[in-house]
Amino acid sequence: MKVLSKVWIVSDGGKILFGEGRLRMLELVQQCGSMNKAAAEMGMSFRTLWGKLRATEKEMGTALVEPRAGGGRRGGSALTADATRLMGRFRSVNAKVTAEADAAFSKAFGEKSGAGRRG
Questions:
Q1: What is the C-alpha to C-alpha distance for residues 3 and 101, in angstroms, rounded to an integer?
Q2: Single pTM value for the model
């Protein structure tokens, strides 16, 4: 047995602004150098990826992705410094929440509780 947890950054109204999905989008934009290629890697349309990232940008009041000049094959997209900071902060919070959830689960359901682990 194990515990699963998910972390999202949400607006005051409950709208998801950032989570593992958007983190993955930004990672792929960074890796591929292109929002188009990132969308293809995720199996979604460019418009869907773009819309999700733009919604996050609007709610957070900062740009996450910027066009890279060059046109054609030389053009593409790059992450802003704010995007890089957001990714790092999210990873940090996510790791802490996961560690706390794992510790709480171990305490409640560990070997001493009688639940045990069987492989």
A1: 7
A2: 0.83
What does the alpha-carbon distance between residue 61 and residue 57 come to, in Å, rounded to a whole number?
6
Check the CA dihedral 106-108-109-110 and report its sign. Answer: positive
Side-chain-facing half-sphere of 11: CA atoms under 13 Å: 11
C-alpha 66/C-alpha 9 separation (Å) is: 22
CA angle 41, 6, 39 (to 5 degrees): 15
Q: What is the DSSP string of 11-52?
A: -TT--EEESHHHHHHHHHHHHHS-HHHHHHHHTS-HHHHHHH
Residue 45, both tokens: 């349309």
Could you tell me the two tokens for 59? 């709610």
pLDDT 10s per residue in the chain (119 long)? 888 889 999 989 898 999 999 999 999 999 999 999 999 999 999 999 999 999 999 999 999 999 887 655 667 999 999 999 999 999 999 999 999 999 999 999 885 444 443 33
